[in-house]
Design goal:
The chain is an alpha/beta fold. It has a domain of 168 residues: Metallo-dependent phosphatases (Purple Acid Phosphatase, chain A, domain 2, 4-Layer Sandwich), CATH 3.60.21. 31% of the residues lie in helices and 17% in strands. The strands form two sheets. Strands 3-2-1-9-10 form a five-stranded mixed sheet, with no helix packed on it. The chain has a five-stranded mixed sheet with strand order 4-5-6-8-7, with no helix packed on it. A hairpin with a 2-residue loop joins strand 4 and strand 5. The chain is globular and about 55 Å long. InterPro entries: Ap4A_hydrolase, Calcineurin-like_PHP, Metallo-depent_PP-like.
Length: 248
């Protein structure tokens, strides 16, 4: 039940009947961990009338060595299973898109994990010796590689947020002082404070990644799922069914 102010806490939040949601935290190129998690999701028992929905919270790419393989896995999973999938844009996908659009002014992406992403597409880089000419060539090669792999259609489907029942799924969080409709991409993909330290309730319970913690973070207004998979080996998945939640 919502409060008179139209706000809801985790103890009251629910997803619609007939839907089981699996929200996956920041993957960062760890295709091995994602493959294991998707296998668990598909093995998770549901009733015949229930529909599984998988939501990826962004930062699928960079840092880990298999960003291309992560995208391949997600697309293949969608083609071979009757499930719904939603992928949200994180700040690292934003970095990647910036590099494709303006490589000369976006070379810092390479130091944030972009070099590993390029290598996953068999594009060799030497970040320390990079210059504008090499950046332009790498961006051109990456664009071709995305098209050949069918990954351009993957990037065309990114969302900044997704609402389902009493939950809002985003990459980083929201500004507690603004309505949901007033949250721009720079907030949804990048924010930390004042979102993380907020202690009240919001119009939706926010499920997010972006900020790394050793264990999933559970608060009345948010659930944080970034457990640093690319270095910790721990990829977190939240399961939502009705008013129940647990980690898979």
């Amino acid at each position: 039940m919502r409060s008179k102010a139209g706000k809801v806490g985790l103890d009251q939040a629910s997803v619609p009947e007939g839907v089981v949601v699996y929200a996956i935290g920041d993957i960062h190129g760890r295709a091995d961990l994602l493959e294991q998690k998707l296998a668990r999701i598909m093995a998770d028992p549901v009733t015949g009338s229930q529909k599984k929905t998988v939501i990826y919270l962004g930062d699928l790419v960079d840092r880990g060595l298999k960003s291309r393989q992560v995208i391949d896995l997600i697309l293949t999973h969608e083609e071979t299973h009757e499930i719904d999938q939603v992928w949200l844009m994180g700040n690292h996908e934003e970095f990647m898109v910036r590099f494709l659009e303006d490589p000369e002014n976006s070379m810092e992406w390479l130091t944030y994990g972009g070099a590993e992403t390029l290598l996953s597409y068999n594009i060799s880089v030497a970040a320390g010796a990079f210059n504008a000419q090499k950046a332009i060539k790498a961006a051109e090669d990456l664009q071709v590689a995305l098209q050949e792999a069918g990954h351009d259609r993957f990037f065309a489907r990114f969302k900044d947020s997704f609402e389902l029942g009493d939950y809002l799924f985003v990459h980083a969080g929201i500004d507690p002082e603004k309505p949901i409709a007033g949250q721009g991409p720079e907030i949804l993909r990048w924010i930390r404070e004042p979102f993380l330290s907020f202690s009240g309730t919001l119009a939706k319970v926010v499920v997010h990644g972006h900020t790394v913690t050793e264990e999933p973070t559970v608060r009345n207004h948010r659930i944080g799922l970034d457990t640093g998979a690319y270095y910790s080996g721990q990829l977190t998945c939240l399961r939502l069914e009705g008013r129940d939640y647990r980690f898979l």
